Each structure stands twice: as C-alpha cells, then as structure tokens.
UniProtKB/TrEMBL annotation:
Keyword Transmembrane included in the entry's annotation: yes
UniProt keywords, alphabetically: Membrane, Transmembrane, Transmembrane helix
High-level lineage: Bacteria, Pseudomonadati, Pseudomonadota, Gammaproteobacteria, Oceanospirillales
Superkingdom field: Bacteria
Residue ranges crossing the lipid bilayer per the database entry: 12-40
Protein's name in the database: Uncharacterized protein
Keyword Membrane tagged: yes
C-alpha cells in the first residue's frame, strides 16, 4: 500500500513556470548575444 503524505508539496508547476521564463528571456536575448559575439569575436 502506498502511503499518502498530507504535507507533500508538488513543485513541478513552479519548475515548469521557471523553465518557461528562462527560455523566454534567453530567446529574447539571443539577437543581442549574437551581436556581441560578432562585434568582439571578429
């Protein structure tokens, strides 16, 4: 029998929101990052 823990908190919702925000910020910063690499890289 599986034990049911009343105090268990599921953090998968927070994790998916956090990863979504990271992807959103990185996608919007990608053109600036490419520009900096091209400017200083050669």
């Amino acid at each position: 029998m599986a034990h049911h823990d009343e105090n268990f908190k599921d953090n998968s919702g927070f994790l998916s929101i956090f990863l979504g925000l990271v992807v959103l910020v990185s996608m919007s910063a990608l053109p600036a990052t490419i520009g900096v690499i091209q400017a200083f890289g050669g």
